[in-house]
Design a protein that fits this description.
It is a single chain. The chain is of the alpha+beta class and 168 residues long. The protein is built from five helices and three strands. It has a three-stranded antiparallel β-sheet, with helices on both faces. It is globular, with a radius of gyration of 15 Å. The chain starts with a helix and ends with a strand.
Length: 168
């Protein structure tokens, strides 16, 4: 797929941010993985697509080296105020639905694929639909957005979910 085709497809699907970046510019950071380990989202050690089950930083680097470039994919929603949970949830569901059209590094783990993850007792039920978040790969989302010349913040009372896709 060409960069132009990917950007056009992302626009057609409805993504707001569609910035292109080179995978050589990705930094896989231990500090980001440490944030995962702090488990503020509650998914560390709970999902196949989150650490430690998703592999090491070395695994992340190895996977990414197979690809040459990527595209940032974003969904942004306007909120009534900074506590508009309904708008946040709706934007997150929209982002995840759009991400299913690609094989992405998503905005959070694949937590909506199954009512409960089989980790660690049984294999993933849907490995072809599961995707790992950018953070679980060790990527600082703001850095990837900078590499793609794509904003991370769209102003007061907005929420933006960001994922990306890598291509060969």
């Amino acid at each position: 797929m060409t960069k132009e085709t990917a950007a056009a497809l992302a626009e057609e699907i409805g993504f707001k941010g569609r910035g292109i970046f080179e995978t050589k510019d990705l930094n896989f950071l231990k500090e980001v993985r440490d944030m995962c380990k702090a488990n503020k989202c509650g998914n560390y050690g709970r999902l196949w697509t989150c650490p430690p089950a998703c592999g090491t930083l070395a695994d992340s680097r190895k996977k990414a080296k197979q690809f040459k470039w990527g595209i940032v994919l974003q969904t942004t929603a306007q909120m009534e105020d900074e506590f508009d949970g309904e708008a946040i949830e709706e934007a997150q569901v929209t982002q995840r639905d759009r991400e299913k059209a690609f094989l992405p590094m998503g905005s959070g783990g694949c937590g909506q694929q199954c009512a409960s993850c089989t980790y660690p007792d049984a294999p993933c039920r849907f490995p072809d639909r599961a995707f790992t978040s950018m953070e679980a790969y060790g990527l600082l989302v703001t850095d990837v957005c900078k590499s793609a010349d794509t904003p991370y913040y769209y102003g007061r009372n907005t929420v933006t979910f960001t994922g990306c896709v890598l291509f060969k």
